[in-house]
Amino acid sequence: MIIGCWNIRGLNDPIKHSELRRLIHQERIALFGLVETRVKDKNKDNVSQLLLRSWSFLYNYDFSCRGRIWVCWNADTVKVDVFGMSDQAIHVSVTILATNISFNTSVIYGENNASLHEALWSDIVSRSDGWESTPWILMGDFNAIRNQSDRVRRVYYVGWYYGQIGYMYSRSESR
Predict the structure, then answer these.
(1) Taking the model in full, what pTM does it have?
(2) In which domain of life is the source organism classified (predicted)?
(3) pLDDT for 5-14, tens place per residue?
(4) The pairing of beta strand 101-109 with beta strand 78-85
(5) What is the distance between the alpha carbons of residues 152 and 130, in angstroms, rounded to a whole number?
(6) Can you say whether the dihedral through the CA atoms of 103, 128, 90, 155 is positive or negative?
């Protein structure tokens, strides 16, 4: 099973819709995180149905009027339960229906302001206490860089295997 995350930097453009649909279908992705969607709350249902009509969606509009984080999944492939949500993260438990294998996933979109990162890290650390025995994938954009050169336009593909879970596909674009 494949999951992914993309800092899409705006999801109102039909070209981005096509690109995202193509990526999800081509790679057979079952769960996807979208950050920095820039979709207004009043438009989220229209946009999500145009994107992936038969998929399920979670949004964090209750915590951020900008709807900074979306989680979408194919309900025929995975079951998703929400553990928590904030302006910087959506935490879910994912069960692969075919195998009954479960793991936790956090889709992160950190604030640009470094002083607000403390709340995100506090949230992550507090959740880690209860999730030691379950695989946990954190993916997204932490808005934290190690070196200034990390801001150069790049596309990153990160993959790893954990038992039968599959690999994470992550794509990042320039700022």
Answers:
(1) 0.83
(2) Eukaryota
(3) 999 999 999 9
(4) unpaired
(5) 37
(6) negative
For 149, the domain range is: 2-171
Mean pLDDT, residues 150-169 taken together: 40
Domain count of the fold of the chain = 1
pLDDT range class, residue 157, cuts 50, 70, 90: very low
Say how far apart CA 78 and CA 64 lie, in whole Å: 26
What is the DSSP secondary structure assignment for residue 108, as one 8-state letter? E
Q: Amino acid identity of 13?
A: D
Question: Can you read off the two tokens belonging to residue 42?
Answer: 């009043």
Residue by residue, DSSP assigns 41-98 as: GGGHHHHHHHH-TTSEEEE-TTT-TT--EEEEE-TTTEEEEEEEE-SSEEEEEEEETT
Enter the tokens of residue 95: 């069960």
